[in-house]
Amino acid sequence: MAEILRTPDGGVNLARWRAAAPGVAARLAGWFDGARRDLPWRRHRTPWRTWVSEVMLQQTQVAKVVPYFERFCAAWPDVADLAAAPLEPVLKAWEGLGYYARARNLHRAARVVAERHGGRVPDDLDALLALPGLGPYTARAVLSLGFDRPVAVVDGNVGRVLARLAAVDRPLRPGADPEIFRLAEVLLDRAAPRRHNEALMELGALVCRPGRPACGACPLSPVCLARRRGRAADLP
């Protein structure tokens, strides 16, 4: 059954995956409800807290980010608070987290939001992309995770999960691989996009790991082409 999820020329059969999408979403949701980590940005979701967490998590491990995130959001609980702050204490709060351009861009972007959007994080993709330091992934994460909008979000973890799921046997393109991104859009649970995207990210972080996937614990193993072919550890 799983092999029909590829086209005759070896591409991803999006029509077949679209038919399988409700089952994939249900499996993911059931697993995530019991396996999700208790992370501070998940306890109280807002667009601003989502934005801060996604910026901090760039090239930084979750365990290191947690205390910085909690202190940062205690000091500047909303985008307007950061916009009103001078840069120096912001950089001081970032000290030890590294990649200080992230803090500078976040501060600049907060001031743009205050000036152009009335101090409210915009809920429009183009408006988010116009802010300093926000690339396509972060903008989509803010929309989906912060606003619960039906937008596909593909980070490294999600890309790996989907590549294995569809047995994409080639190096993935940097950023959003077009074929993987189309698959993410097809599989997206539009009734619960935040939970769906968080679940895919969590699955990649905890189960579908690079080089050593725990296929026996994976809720998607029944439809995973890489597992069926014995190639999960090799892909992508």
Automatic annotation (TrEMBL):
GO biological process: base-excision repair; mismatch repair
Pfam families: HHH, HhH-GPD
Catalytic activity: Hydrolyzes free adenine bases from 7,8-dihydro-8-oxoguanine:adenine mismatched double-stranded DNA, leaving an apurinic site
Gene3D superfamilies: Helix-hairpin-Helix base-excision DNA repair enzymes (C-terminal) (1.10.1670.10), Hypothetical protein, domain 2 (1.10.340.30)
Enzyme Commission number(s): 3.2.2.31
InterPro entries: DNA_glycosylase, Endouclease-III_FeS-bd_BS, HhH-GPD_domain, HhH_base_excis_C, HhH_motif, MIG/MutY
Key words of the record: 4Fe-4S, DNA damage, DNA repair, Glycosidase, Hydrolase, Iron, Iron-sulfur, Metal-binding
Domain called HhH-GPD: residue spans: 56-206
GO molecular function annotations of the record: 4 iron, 4 sulfur cluster binding; 8-oxo-7,8-dihydroguanine DNA N-glycosylase activity; adenine/guanine mispair binding; metal ion binding; oxidized purine DNA binding; purine-specific mismatch base pair DNA N-glycosylase activity
SUPFAM superfamilies: DNA-glycosylase (SSF48150)
Residue spans crossing the bilayer: none
Top-level taxonomic group: Bacteria
Cofactors: [4Fe-4S] cluster
Role, per record: Adenine glycosylase active on G-A mispairs. MutY also corrects error-prone DNA synthesis past GO lesions which are due to the oxidatively damaged form of guanine: 7,8-dihydro-8-oxoguanine (8-oxo-dGTP).
Family: Belongs to the Nth/MutY family.
Name assigned to this protein: Adenine DNA glycosylase
